[in-house]
Amino acid sequence: MASSYVDSSGRSLADYPRPSVAVDTALLTVPEETGQLSVLQVRRHRDPGWALPGTFLHEGERLIDAVQRSLRDKAGVVGTSPRQLHVFDDPRRDTRGWVLSVAHLDVVRPDQLAGRDRARTRLVPVDRPGMLPYQHDEIIERAVSELRRRYASAPDPDHLLAEPFTILQLRRLHQAIAGRPLQPDTFRRKMGLQLTGTGTRTTGTRGKPAELYLRER
Amino acid sequence: MASSYVDSSGRSLADYPRPSVAVDTALLTVPEETGQLSVLQVRRHRDPGWALPGTFLHEGERLIDAVQRSLRDKAGVVGTSPRQLHVFDDPRRDTRGWVLSVAHLDVVRPDQLAGRDRARTRLVPVDRPGMLPYQHDEIIERAVSELRRRYASAPDPDHLLAEPFTILQLRRLHQAIAGRPLQPDTFRRKMGLQLTGTGTRTTGTRGKPAELYLRER
DNA sequence: GTAATAGTGTCTATCAGACATTATAAC
DNA sequence: GTTATAATGTCTGATAGACACTATTAC
């Protein structure tokens, strides 16, 4: 493909102007405390306020590595699986120059955020993200839609629950992501078919003990 | 956001190395002659063979404008609506340097391709795209999946048919995109509800005249 | 026993697939 | 009339929502 880009004037790759490329990430999780789908934000460096974690792409670096580096450096989060969402390409988006930003979605278990720097980061429910610079609110919207689409038909595809888990735990997670209550019986019937029962049950809980399940089918 | 990227060493935006950014497009259409979902390919400049149309992003240019420029210059196609699919970011993908490529999907009516340069371009069914450089086959796969998803539930969302049209015309289009036959009666029931009948009917055709419909609901 | 939660039975509405039937044109 | 296509009727099976009911635990 490269050579097909060389135009009739014979200009080579190095002759073309190049934009800076950044990554920005909507890191979503469901904290135990609130049970609400929330997004990680970090303090901005120069300006007051909060923003999504982001960084510039380093030379020869892959986008996914830049995302993981920014999450490690800015929030102490490791072991994530970012996915691309969209490229924001308005040339006037950044006042300091020509910057393309590749928005990402990442989803983590709350325990993966345990060691985060609480002075420099915060977790905010996705439906009240506060004032954010640039199009970070749009990134959150895209991230939430994508996550809801993923969780609509499959049980916990992003492995937010530690195995084994009960169907109630699974349903609470899916409700947090969907942002609305889900029918207990319908949910059980749809998702239960995609789970493997362990035969063991919870103990010490109120009511009838629930069976514990594994994701693997 | 920009200022939040400045790291603790105080490096500014211009100090970061920058990749070249390209766009590549899977331009899909359904030619009258074959009735098969097909993708536009252009002759490569230096190497033998064919590739998807692409170009480098010009300074301050938006991605969508680069896509439209490449389609105009390489295939004489105008008036399209490209959509982003994915960023290909393997630093070793292009032997001549560090190039990010933003893959796009574009869908056009066959008449929009009437004036194309037939010596430099060809239309190939998407299921037999031939040998393509880099990850252009993957771009086609993503483009087709996305198009099938869009056409699964709505009647001709990308306006490939000139209005008014019959349900048979609509179903043939959807079959070409789905790559499989669709039940006439089920299709009519699902899509018919989302169309507006004009009251007028085809004339001069064999069999019972078909009603003509508009997309608008 | 009561309260609470897990899990199942079952009715209804909706919808896709499949097939039959009716309607209306060209010939 | 015959043939071809459009449009509708209707049966069946699958599934979601809704509600009732049974099962098993803590207390």
Task: Kindly describe this structure.
Two copies of one chain form a homodimer. Chain A has 217 residues and is an alpha+beta fold. The first copy, chain A, has two domains: 17-151, Nucleoside Triphosphate Pyrophosphohydrolase; 167-215, no CATH class. Chain A has five helices and nine strands. In chain A, β2 (38-43) and β3 (50-51) form a beta hairpin. The longest helix of chain A has 16 residues, at 136-151. Chain B binds a DNA duplex (27 and 27 nucleotides) through α5.
SSE blueprint:
The structure is a homodimer of 217-residue chains.
Chain A: H1 2-5, E1 20-29, E2 38-43, E3 50-51, E4 54-56, H2 63-75, E5 83-88, E6 99-107, E7 121-125, H3 136-151, H4 167-178, H5 184-192, E8 196-201, E9 211-214
Parallel strand pairs in A: 1-6
Antiparallel strand pairs in A: 1-2, 1-4, 2-3, 2-7, 5-6, 8-9
Chain B binds a DNA duplex (27 and 27 nucleotides) through residues 166-168, 183-186, 188-190, 192, 201-211.
